[in-house]
Structure formats: C-alpha cells, structure tokens
Amino acid sequence: MEFRRTADFDFMLPDELIARHPLPNRDASRMMVLHRSTATIEHRSFAEFAAYVTPSDLVVLNDTRVIPARVYSDDHRVEFLFLEAVSHNLWKCLVKPGRRMKVGAQASIGGVSGEVREILADGERVIAFEGPVDLESHGSMPLPPYMERDAEVEDSTRYQTVYARNAGAVAAPTAGLHFTPDILSKLPHAFLTLHVGVGTFRPVQVDDLTEHRMHSERYAVPATTATAINSANRIFAIGTTTTRVLESIGRPMRATEGSTDIFIRPPHTFHVVNVLLTNFHLPKSTLLMLVSAFADRDFILHAYAEAIRERYRFFSYGDCMLIL
C-alpha cells in the first residue's frame, strides 16, 4: 500500500525518551525484535544479536567515519559545519549566522582564512580556504540537533562505530554504534562505505511525498563485499545507510563507487536486504519511511507505540530494532 502523505508517518514521542547520552556499554542497548511473518514482537538485548545470525548469512555494515565537522571561526562569530570536500581546500559548508557569510566574506579557522565563493540554492556555502583546515584540532563532533547539547569528550569515540575507518560523514551510521569488537568478531560480516550527509537531519518539507527529493550521498562497495553478498543466504543490513546503498545497486551486487539519492518508502520492493537492524527514528522522517517500507507501516507504528510504553530510548544514542 502506498502512503503519500508525510503525516502518515507521524507519532508523538515524550521528550524524556530521547537518548542524549550513550549507555556506559555499547552492547547494553535493548533490542526490539519484529517478526514480519507473524507480526509479533519480542523484547531482547542487543547482546543477543548474534543468536539471530547463521554462518550462511552476511552482516553488512557502513564503515564511514564521522569527521569533527562543527567548527567556530577564530573570533567565534561564525559557526561552520563542514559537509564535503569539493576539491583541494575547497569545502561545502553550512554556516551560522548566514548574514555574515555572503559571497566574498572571509573568516579564519586556526589562522587559515577562508572566503565564500558561492551560495548554493539550499543555503550551503562553497568556501575556499588558503590551506588545509585542521578539523581534528579545531572541530568537534556534529551531534544531531535534537540532543540539544554541545559535544563532550566521550562523543569523540561513542558517536563513532568501533569499525569506522573511512572519514567523510557528518552523522554516524547509528545502528552500528551498538557493536563491540567482540560481537563483530563472531559474525560473518563485510563493509561498505556511505558518507552520511546533513540531509539525514533535514525534515521533509512537503506534504505530498511524491514531491520530496532526497539528498545525495557518496558510497563505495569493495569487490570483497560484493562477492560475499552474492554468495550469502541472507543479508543483514546494519542501518538505513547500508540499506540505501544495497537497494540502489541491486542484485547481482558489484564493486562500484557512486552516489545515491534513493528515496525508499512504501511500497518499495526490496531486492537485496533480508533483515534490517536499525535505531528508532524521528517522526515524519525519511528514515522512518524506509523502515515502514521494509515492514508494514501499521506494524511499525504499532511497534513504536509499544516502544514508547516500554520506555525504549530513541534516536542516535538509543535502543534498536531488529526486523526479521
């Protein structure tokens, strides 16, 4: 069934269920297990995840690494969010306040001056810097706006998966935050890369979903991963970002690099992903729409209502859902 209205994916979430800090242990999160074949729900712990994976399955994870993309100018008058390196020392950025950064305006970070060369239609600035900007020294983790706090020391590691290695994301692939090296070592797994962009936080601005255009994100699938996917029994996609890559390419999987702006919503037919691990998402978000395409929308909203009753923790640092 097709749901064309943004309002079809709305729900009320108590503010206190938003997880603004991670649990002390990554694998201590609760895991709601949804059985699509029987429309039943179990309440488990993520520590039990491996019990659902067989040796012939393959767990596919996004190994993107979040960059410390939130930076203030040396005079603290401008806040930058570094989105994407266009070329050598040329970056797409979001800036606040925008009125300070018109075309030709300048600001410096760590003594490196940058000048606005172009303002794009969505408000992003293309900024040319005189030299490399040391984000590791001057930047902080770009936490989602709903956390309503600045990044702290623990976020430099906890808002990062334990297997993150390819830098380029401005948001974490949050379903992967639950994994520990020990759990991962027990699973048949492979990696791909999708650099999560700021569009993951942007609300849908239209009422009719046929008018919504997704942000584009860069991805890469190595040959070893493509081969493993083509020979696996079931594909466990860890998160919506992994799912978007796999469903953009389809079967047979191949080694490739590119970008995707795929918008997955009911009634999408899935060609690669058999099982999905995902966190609990924002109301009316494209992520919730993707999950509602993988499982029946009414079943998902029923599960969300149960998660609220059972006091699950929501969003990036929250609990997770395994959809079988």
Account of the protein in words:
The protein has 324 residues and is α/β, with parallel strands linked by helices. The chain has two domains: 6-66 and 144-323, QueA-like, CATH 3.40.1780; 70-140, Thrombin, subunit H (Beta Barrel), CATH 2.40.10.240. Helix content is 17%, strand content 28%. The protein has seven helices and 18 strands. The protein has helices spanning 135-138, 155-158, 181-185, 223-231, 240-249, 286-294, 297-309; strands spanning 30-35, 40-45, 58-62, 64-66, 70-72, 79-87, 90-96, 106-109, 112-119, 125-129, 139-140, 166-169, 189-194, 217-221, 235-238, 256-260, 275-279, 320-323. The strands form three sheets. A nine-stranded mixed β-sheet has the order 2-1-18-17-15-3-13-14-16. A seven-stranded antiparallel β-sheet has the order 8-9-10-7-6-5-11. The chain has a two-stranded parallel ribbon with strand order 4-12. A hairpin with a 6-residue loop joins β5 (70-72) and β6. α6 packs across α7 (297-309). The longest helix has 13 residues, at 297-309. It is globular. The model has no long low-confidence stretch (mean pLDDT 96).
Topology summary:
Elements: E1 30-35, E2 40-45, E3 58-62, E4 64-66, E5 70-72, E6 79-87, E7 90-96, E8 106-109, E9 112-119, E10 125-129, H1 135-138, E11 139-140, H2 155-158, E12 166-169, H3 181-185, E13 189-194, E14 217-221, H4 223-231, E15 235-238, H5 240-249, E16 256-260, E17 275-279, H6 286-294, H7 297-309, E18 320-323
Parallel strand pairs: 1-18, 3-13, 3-15, 4-12, 15-17
Antiparallel strand pairs: 1-2, 5-6, 5-11, 6-7, 7-10, 8-9, 9-10, 13-14, 14-16, 17-18
Helix pairs in contact: 6-7
